[in-house]
């Protein structure tokens, strides 16, 4: 029965829901110790609670830390794996997320898209060639002053639309699905307080990827690094053999790192050191880095290199001049997914059933799924359809969102079909 069903996911419903969610400012705040880190995430969470109830979910809950969970009940008697569907509610603090006003560009004909009324900000195929893939489709874009928030409100939209679709079509047989919407993923905390035991899924998928067809089960190993430099300020007129210029040491430290191991010079499986902040005076300075590498051994060697350079500079100057605080952030999920590759096969089949060829590639980043996988819940990542996340040139084709919704539905239907065939 499922194979003969002609799935019709309505574009209008998806775009309307996404645009409504996008208008709520849910930027997370790395300087806040609260969870969630910003009140806008709670505002969205309360709306999602209402929408999940309206979609027919049970066990709908918003806990004290801002995590939303719900259940799509099974409608078959067979034993089927419980599948988790996860997305995050926050948007990136890297660019303005206040006053988001998405605009729908219907039947995109190609060429430049003016994002603002003054035509000063253009979304151009010359800059973003992937636009050429979506001629004739409907694109949701920004107004040129904010990010869009497809990362990850598109994932939330697609999960809820998939649930609604299944509730509206009770003839389609599926097992239980557990839904989880997390706070603060963009600042690396999304899975920290996730209650895996209470979630009770056998495996899960984050719906948090990019362009149509992406299926990911490898990500960076990640660490954050704070380098503190303690100098000695002396009047420059009498500074010879006395001054220790913390800013100069900061420059020297950075220049010791391999020049080619930077984000702008790497791709694929290549790792990097990324300087995200530098500030200070002659007396004190600091550098903030993130370290990324897919290979665990290379990742550990990068951390060792940081420590080695600190030791070398402390020998040149004095003990305690340079210190590094290194904090692991997440690890590559690959080692946790490889023993359960049937969940990748399931997602691949679901994509092909929707007419999409899976694009399996390593994530040059991380998702909640990376931490969740190492916490005991295998959680690879599937696409939302968005592009150019975290900035004013972010856009998402509505047709890609439709396909992502189809893929979610197909995952649940195929899992149920497998269980029925095996019984």
Approximate shape:
globular
Note the beta-strand portion. 15-25%
Q: Radius of gyration, rounded?
A: 24 Å
What is the topology, as strand order, of the major beta sheet? 1-2-8-3-9-16-10-15
What's the helix-strand series?
Answer: HHEEEEEEEHEHEEEHEEHEHHEHEEH
CATH architecture of the largest domain: 3-Layer(aba) Sandwich
CATH 4th-level superfamily of the largest domain: Zn peptidases
Distance between the termini: 17 Å
Largest sheet: 8 strands, mixed
CATH class of the largest domain: Alpha Beta
User: What's the pLDDT, averaged over the residues?
Assistant: 95
Topology:
Elements: H1 11-22, H2 39-54, E1 58-62, E2 68-72, E3 83-88, E4 103-105, E5 113-114, E6 122-123, E7 139-141, H3 150-168, E8 177-182, H4 196-199, E9 203-209, E10 214-216, E11 221-230, H5 246-256, E12 272-280, E13 284-293, H6 296-316, E14 322-330, H7 334-337, H8 342-353, E15 359-360, H9 368-375, E16 381-383, E17 395-397, H10 398-422
Helix pairs in contact: 1-3, 3-10, 8-10
